[in-house]
């Protein structure tokens, strides 16, 4: 401390020197000291430093003054509150000084202090802010204009950072700001508006009302156009900054703004249009009524150009096109009129239209009828900046046409849908853009390519008939003359890549001759970004000139050498950008894949380069992908020269930590083994196989899957190399097979592997069967009766493997089946053995006819009586799958058992479900099942009345899957049963519909679309259970096939929202001994309704009235624990999807969140209650953290009050901090690129 004080005293002494350099250096050293976190000043040093710095603000040397001001920032955080007040007092006094330089430097000082005040120390910030505010409000009323400007500027800064702390001053601030709106100086008005914008973020409703009433009355008077402009600007700013509070005044404001829009004053029109844009973005619901009117005004003013005749311009353009000396003629840009403000009006109209298009997805078809033709006609706009905004508006229109939420393809593509309307306008768009592609302005041409790229992404193939119109423009922008900049070339190449990717190759063949030379030139360009983009285009162009998946008559040979040479130059170069290296490798890979048969001699030079790139750590991944591409070519490229050196390099990659490299290498090796198996030596194969055991494990199933696929390929082409499998690889596979995670692709790869190796030396059927079943049968001890030998999922995996082996060796099937049947019958068998034997019988029976084994039905049925539920389920599964092997024998038996065995009904129905699921998967199965459909259908309906919900659910699944087999006749039958008097039947039928809806296209979809409305009418059913299952079905449709329900939402949503309400008549009290327990029979249906709402956010957001939706979310925030948890999740989604709507309702959303976070659990509650409440708080906090990501949410008074409450509680504060950390970590994880 003493040494610091001594050092500071030294510096202060130098600051008094007459030499300005001494003063400057001393101040600079002080700045360095103050920026150190470790510095601590004693009271005396604090006082002296503050005094000296304030004195230096009046120094004669400007540089010293500037440094002194900079020192104030770090100083504020190092001295006590009293000293900060001294600084602020002095600065405020200096601001009113007669010396202009002192005034300026003091105002900079105040801004520095405000920006550096620590937000954590609210007490300090509040007292300093209050001190400054009083002085500023008096300074604003001064007549000196420069003082006013500085004071307003500082006040704006203060309100933006600490508006919430100045609530007591808000009224006096407003009183001092309002007169400045009519100041004779426009700069004062502008800064007053900015300050008012920051004020309305945190002021209370009374003050907001007072401000709005004042502005409305002034707009009503309209005493002077100049002040009217200012008031309109102010209204626009208020709606931008506090749109959520502005909505209720919109009805009174809009008539004024619309009226002033008609005035003959371009500046006023511009401000009115800017205000409209702000209203549209910030008051989504309230502006709806006025949108058609605003669109008309925008369409009128986007053409507002009174000083220019566009007809003459068109004629002039036609003449210039005919004239060879085009460069020398006057261009549009030479037109100049300094007084012409009409371009600002047109720009504001274009921006307003952009806002309308971006926020009104429901009006998309109307936009294509009215707005789209108007925008297209204005592509000829003469002012470059306006033209850019018009292009931007059209790009937004196209983006809205390919929405991010699951679209409804039928609605989009129907006769009057947006896609069809856009399709009809393509010729007009191309005609309008064609002229602009030859414009001298780079910005204009970039806008054109941006628009055309978006158009091609929305409508792939859109340019098929118009390429001849676009190619000259592409050539013009890729030219080597002054018409093209580097960015222009990059954008042109990106567009070219886009259209090559999204069009049929044949349409380009007539243009290849003119495109190739320019692309070749671009590949050789010295600027690496152009080269990189050109290589991408070359790669795509190669696929176009010779597509391998279709036959064409185009002669590609003249272009092969040219494309090869330009790419080779880049591939050889070692001293180029990383991106260019990678793209050159990929591009050459594509050239060899598609054109390799014409490059036989060149391959001797080119393929060794790939080997070099494989050895380089930076390029090896790209080189592996390129080799995979070449090896998979149908042209059978000769890769033998590089395999000897290449395979060992690839094999070493299998032990690297880089996951992407492992995956790509495995895929590459598999293609090489399949296509070049005869060229691979046993040494090469052994090198690969040496690395494989460590790759087969449950930690990465994708790597395991590809490894098994590679092994399967090797076993087919190199059987002798499989000698090491039993000792080295099989043990790893047997560990993996017991993993509960094994499923999907990895399991299928394992089945293929076993089928491929069975019969090889030491890998006979019996050998493999023994090692597979050993874990189950080896655990045959009495204690194993209660616990399974391996994980339940492993039983299924091993059973599937045994079945795969049995199918490959049918001669062994009889013995194996007999063995398993005996194992099931054997009373000494453990539950593990019984369970496995039944599953294995089921898997084998699915593929082979087991009807010759007479005992099998009896044995399986006897297992239905097992004490173990898992064994019963396995027996049910086995009966269903065995029946698939011989439907004619087993299905009648199953149906008969269902009728005669009411106690086993549930298990037998599960068997029936397995039969239907299995048979409906193939055309032959459907054909075999057809004769039984009617009898099964009738039998199922006879079981609809079962009081057990579990049984009814299985019946529903069977009915749903049967309906998929013959929708035209069975769907109407289901619909007919909706009229049943029994609620059980109605609920079964509605649940059956859920099982007809899958996320894949089905033949039933069009029929379902026509009648799903009838099934959803059960949302009005008198029975609560029927309504609940209707909601579950609705949820399934919303999740898997939103197109089924999108058009029904207007009628369905009121009934859905109705089910979110708590019904008192469904709440009852139950006495449990001395306690009374409250039961809510409506909870399940409310939960189902909220789940539907959550699903709709993902799939049908554009069809929801978000404010009505939020009303019910608010109710859910005050409901039961389960529903609160759901609504918190909804809030997180809503904050991301509809931030402006959420901001408008923030006051009402914060209150229930606060109630949850501040609820205390009773001291004598059980542990679960504490855990439940803790989880509830955490979820509520996550919702609060998401709400804070909404722009301007942190300016909301209620939210700020709640945050203060959180920070004041140590428990809540630590919880909130950890949640915020998690949120920021997960968001950064999602943005970080996967570098593996």
From TrEMBL:
Residues 1-228 form the TOG domain. Keywords: Acetylation, Nucleus, Repeat, Ubl conjugation pathway. Residues 312-338, 1214-1236 are annotated as: Disordered. The keyword Plastid does not apply. GO terms for cellular component: nucleus. It is found in: Nucleus. GO terms for biological process: SCF complex assembly. SUPFAM superfamilies: ARM repeat. Its main location: nucleus. Residues 1221-1236 have a biased composition (Polar residues). Belongs to the CAND family. This is TOG domain-containing protein. It comes from Potamilus streckersoni.
């Amino acid at each position: 401390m003493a040494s610091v004080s001594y050092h500071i005293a030294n510096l202060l002494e130098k600051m008094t020197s007459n030499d300005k350099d001494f003063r400057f250096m001393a101040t600079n050293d002080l700045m360095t000291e103050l920026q150190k976190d470790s510095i601590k000043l004693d009271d005396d040093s604090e006082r002296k430093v503050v005094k000296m710095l304030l004195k230096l603000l009046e120094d004669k040397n400007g540089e010293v003054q500037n440094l002194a001001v900079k020192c104030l920032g770090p100083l504020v955080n190092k001295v006590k509150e009293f000293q900060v007040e001294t600084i602020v007092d002095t600065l405020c006094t200096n601001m009113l000084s007669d010396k202009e330089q002192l005034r300026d430097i003091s105002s900079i000082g105040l801004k520095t202090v405000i920006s550096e005040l620590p937000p954590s120390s609210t007490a300090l910030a509040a007292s300093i802010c209050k001190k400054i505010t009083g002085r500023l409000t008096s300074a604003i009323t001064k007549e000196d204009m420069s003082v006013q400007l500085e004071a307003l500027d500082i006040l704006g800064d203060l309100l933006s950072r600490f508006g919430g702390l100045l609530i007591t001053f808000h009224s006096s601030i407003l009183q001092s700001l309002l007169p400045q709106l009519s100041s004779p100086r426009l700069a004062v008005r502008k800064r007053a508006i900015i300050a008012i914008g920051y004020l309305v973020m945190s002021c209370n409703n009374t003050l907001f009302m007072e401000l709005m009433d004042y502005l409305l009355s002034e707009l009503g008077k309209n005493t002077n156009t100049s002040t009217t402009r200012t008031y309109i600007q102010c209204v626009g700013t208020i709606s931008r900054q506090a749109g959520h509070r502005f909505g209720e005044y919109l009805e009174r404001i809009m008539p004024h703004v619309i009226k002033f829009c008609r005035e003959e004053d371009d500046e006023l029109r511009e401000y009115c249009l800017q205000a409209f844009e702000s209203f549209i973005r910030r008051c989504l619901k309230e502006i709806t009524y006025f949108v058609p009117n605003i669109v008309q005004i925008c369409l009128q003013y986007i053409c507002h150009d009174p000083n220019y005749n566009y007809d003459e311009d068109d004629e002039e353009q036609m003449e210039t096109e005919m004239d060879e000396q085009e460069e020398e003629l006057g261009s549009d840009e030479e037109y100049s009129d300094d007084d012409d403000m009409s371009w600002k009006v047109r720009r504001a109209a274009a921006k307003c239209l952009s806002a309308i298009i971006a926020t009104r997805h429901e009006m998309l078809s109307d936009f294509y009828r009215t707005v789209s033709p108007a925008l297209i006609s204005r592509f000829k706009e003469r002012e470059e900046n306006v033209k850019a905004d018009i292009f931007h508006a059209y790009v937004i229109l196209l983006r809205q046409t390919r929405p991010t939420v699951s679209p409804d393809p039928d609605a989009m593509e129907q006769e009057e849908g947006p896609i069809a309307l856009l399709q009809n306008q393509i010729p007009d768009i191309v005609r309008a853009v064609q002229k602009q592609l030859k414009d001298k302005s780079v910005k204009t041409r970039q806008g054109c390519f941006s628009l055309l790229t978006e158009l091609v992404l929305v409508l792939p193939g859109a340019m098929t008939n118009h390429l001849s119109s676009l190619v000259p423009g592409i050539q013009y922008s890729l030219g080597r003359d002054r018409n093209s900049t580097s960015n222009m070339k990059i954008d042109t190449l990106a567009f070219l890549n886009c259209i090559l990717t999204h069009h049929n190759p044949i349409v380009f063949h007539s243009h290849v001759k003119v495109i190739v030379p320019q692309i070749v030139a671009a590949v050789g360009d010295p600027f690496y970004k152009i080269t990189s983009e050109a290589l991408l285009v070359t790669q795509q162009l190669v696929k176009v000139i010779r597509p391998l998946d279709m036959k064409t008559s185009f002669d590609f040979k003249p272009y092969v050498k040219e494309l090869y040479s330009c790419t080779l130059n880049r591939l050889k170069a070692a001293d180029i950008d990383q991106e260019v290296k990678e793209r050159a490798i990929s591009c050459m890979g594509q050239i060899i894949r598609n054109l390799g048969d014409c490059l036989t001699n060149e391959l001797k030079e080119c393929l060794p380069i790939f080997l070099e790139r494989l050895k380089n750590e930076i390029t090896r991944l790209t080189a592996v992908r390129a080799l995979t591409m070449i090896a998979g070519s149908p042209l059978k490229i000769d890769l033998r020269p590089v395999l000897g050196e290449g395979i060992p390099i690839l094999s070493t990659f299998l032990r690297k930590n880089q996951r992407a490299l492992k995956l790509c290498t495995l895929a590459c090796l598999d293609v090489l083994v399949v296509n070049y198996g005869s060229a691979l030596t046993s040494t090469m194969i052994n090198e690969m196989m040496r690395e494989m055991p460590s790759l087969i494990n449950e930690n990465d199933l994708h790597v395991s899957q590809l490894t098994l696929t590679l092994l399967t390929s090797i076993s087919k082409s190199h059987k002798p190399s499989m000698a090491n499998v039993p000792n080295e690889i099989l043990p790893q596979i047997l560990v993996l097979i017991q993993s509960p995670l094994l499923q999907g692709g990895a399991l299928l790869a394992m089945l293929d592997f076993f089928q491929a190796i069975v019969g090889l030396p030491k890998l006979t059927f019996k050998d493999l069967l023994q090692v597979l079943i050993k874990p189950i049968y080896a655990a045959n001890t009495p204690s194993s009766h209660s616990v399974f030998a391996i994980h339940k999922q492993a039983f299924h995996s091993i059973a599937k493997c045994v079945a795969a082996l049995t199918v490959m060796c049918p001669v062994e099937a009889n013995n194996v089946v007999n063995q398993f049947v005996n194992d099931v019958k054997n009373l000494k068998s453990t539950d593990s053995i019984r369970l496995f034997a039944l599953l294995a019988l089921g898997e084998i029976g699915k593929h082979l006819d087991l009807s010759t084994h007479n005992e099998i039905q009896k044995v399986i049925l006897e297992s239905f009586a097992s004490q173990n539920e898992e064994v019963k389920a396995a027996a049910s599964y086995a009966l269903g799958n065995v029946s698939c092997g011989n439907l004619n024998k087993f299905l009648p038996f199953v149906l008969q058992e269902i009728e005669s065995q009411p106690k086993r009904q549930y298990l037998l129905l599960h068997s029936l479900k397995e039969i239907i699921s299995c048979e409906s998967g193939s055309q032959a199965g459907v054909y075999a099942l057809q004769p039984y459909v009617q009898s099964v259908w009738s039998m199922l309906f006879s079981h609809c009345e079962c009081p057990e919900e579990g049984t009814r659910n299985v019946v529903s699944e069977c009915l749903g899957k049967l309906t998929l087999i013959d929708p035209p006749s069975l769907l109407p039958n289901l619909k007919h049963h909706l009229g049943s008097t029994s609620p059980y039947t109605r609920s079964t039928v509605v649940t059956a519909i859920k099982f007809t809806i899958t996320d894949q296209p089905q033949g039933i979809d069009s029929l379902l679309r026509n009648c799903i409305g009838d099934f959803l009418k059960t949302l009005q059913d008198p029975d609560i259970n029927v309504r609940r299952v209707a909601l579950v079905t609705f949820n399934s449709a919303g999740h898997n096939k939103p197109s089924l329900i999108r058009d029904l939402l207007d009628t369905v949503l009121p009934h859905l929202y109705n089910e979110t309400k708590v019904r008192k008549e469904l709440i009852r009290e139950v006495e449990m001994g001395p306690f009374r327990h409250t039961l809510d029979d409506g909870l399940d249906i409310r939960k189902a309704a909220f789940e539907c709402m959550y699903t709709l956010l993902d799939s049908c957001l554009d069809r929801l009235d978000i404010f009505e939706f939020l009303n019910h979310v608010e109710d859910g925030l005050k409901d039961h624990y389960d529903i609160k948890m759901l609504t918190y999740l909804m809030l997180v989604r809503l904050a991301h999807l509809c931030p402006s709507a959420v901001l408008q309702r923030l006051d009402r959303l914060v209150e229930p969140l606060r109630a949850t976070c501040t609820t205390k659990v009773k001291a004598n509650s059980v542990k679960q209650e504490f855990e439940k409440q803790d989880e509830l708080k955490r979820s509520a906090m996550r919702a609060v953290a998401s709400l804070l990501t909404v722009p301007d949410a942190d300016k909301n008074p209620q939210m700020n009050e709640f945050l203060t409450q959180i920070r004041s509680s140590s428990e809540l504060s630590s919880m909130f901090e950890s949640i915020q950390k998690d949120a920021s970590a997960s968001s950064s994880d999602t943005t970080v690129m996967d570098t593996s």
